[in-house]
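DM from R.C. (forwarded with permission)

"hey, sorry to bug you on a friday — could you get me a structure for this? deadline for the figure draft is monday and I only need the backbone to look sensible"
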Amino acid sequence: MNRAVFLDRDGVINAVFVRESTPHPPLSLEEFRFLPGVAQACQALRAAGFVLIVVTNQPDVARGTQTRQCVETLNDRVRSELPVEEVLTCYHDNNNNCDCRKPKPGLLLQAAVRWHLNLDESFMIGDRWSDVEAGHACGCSTILIERSYSSSERCQADWVVSDLTTAAAIILEEASK
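My reply, with the result:
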């Protein structure tokens, strides 16, 4: 069984655009920017033997404000520039009541089967309460990257940090125990 690090995309890997206290993903490849230290953190986790899986909610496709092709273009950039095995995307909105939209753990469970993952030895890193809840729902340790919109009082992450570099350092330390 493998250990994994699940990574939310927007706000963890790449910059978001905050409007009215709500984060929004980039609308194009031109707007897409990796956050500082992301590539190095991912490389360190991969070198330590973790399977890296990106799990992202993209409800703007269901809302008609973003195209699936644009989301896939952004995901392709993540796959081409970071050592991730897979990017799994939920394109549904809240009212679709699907199993793949975080806080439900469907994407993580799907990856666990495909990659033979031990979820009890895996980690979920996100910038929103729904990421933390998805991680808890399937037994992962959780790390919240706190942002102005994160609402850390809505969830009980195992760790709260300021960036992916710090999150990776915690995971590497925990893995060495």
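R.C.: lifesaver. The two ends are 18 Å apart (CA to CA).
me: no worries. The mean pLDDT is 95.
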